[in-house]
Amino acid sequence: MKNRLPLLFALLALFSLNALASSDEEQILAIIAAIETGWEKADGTPFKAHFKDFDGARYFESGGQNVGLTDLIEHHVEPEGHAISLDLAFNDPQIHVQGDFAWALFDTVVKGTVHKSGRKLDSRGHETVILQKTDGEWKVLHTHSSSRPVKK
């Protein structure tokens, strides 16, 4: 039994690390789902709950940027959602956790209708979200997305 004790401890430690990683991934996936819903509903609440608001925060989308969380919510999420009926899909998420930092990569599908003109949107692209775990909670530090209209 003595010879097996170190092996038992190593297996328990490995199991614990895998359980933590799985929990981290589940938390990050829940954050991504909340952000997707926030965009679709023009609701800044998920952004306030899951983004770390700090000086110098910047969020990029298809060549544009928002500086700070308030700018993102008040000049992008809310107005865009009221001007466009959005239907988003964040597909094939890949989560990478390195200690208290993580990044998520996923494919994006952006469909919608511009209210004023009736123009239809149909774009595909990719997004990266960078997160930091602070006080046991994951917070988004930065996002970068880019998409292109689907060629028909």
Instruction: Estimate percent helicity.
Output: 25-40%
Distance between the termini: 67 Å
Please tell me how large the radius of gyration is: 19 Å
**Domain tally:** 1
Mean pLDDT: 89
Oligomer: single chain
Order of strands across the biggest sheet? 2-1-6-5-4-3
Compressed to H and E, one letter per element, the order equals HHEEHEEEE
Strand fraction equals 35-45%
CATH hierarchy, class:
Alpha Beta
User: How many separate helices?
Assistant: 3
Q: Classify the fold: give the CATH topology.
A: Nuclear Transport Factor 2, Chain: A
CATH architecture assignment name:
Roll
Main pleated-sheet profile: 6 strands, mixed
Question: Which features characterize this protein?
Answer:
six-stranded mixed β-sheet, Nuclear Transport Factor 2, Chain: A, 152 residues, alpha+beta, single chain, globular
Describe the structure in your own words:
The structure is a single chain. The protein has a single domain (5-149), classed as Roll (Nuclear Transport Factor 2, Chain: A). Helices cover 38% and strands 43% of the residues. The protein has 3 helices and 6 strands. The protein has a 6-stranded mixed beta sheet with strand order 2-1-6-5-4-3, covered by helices on one side. α1 crosses α3. Residues 5-20 have low confidence and may be disordered.
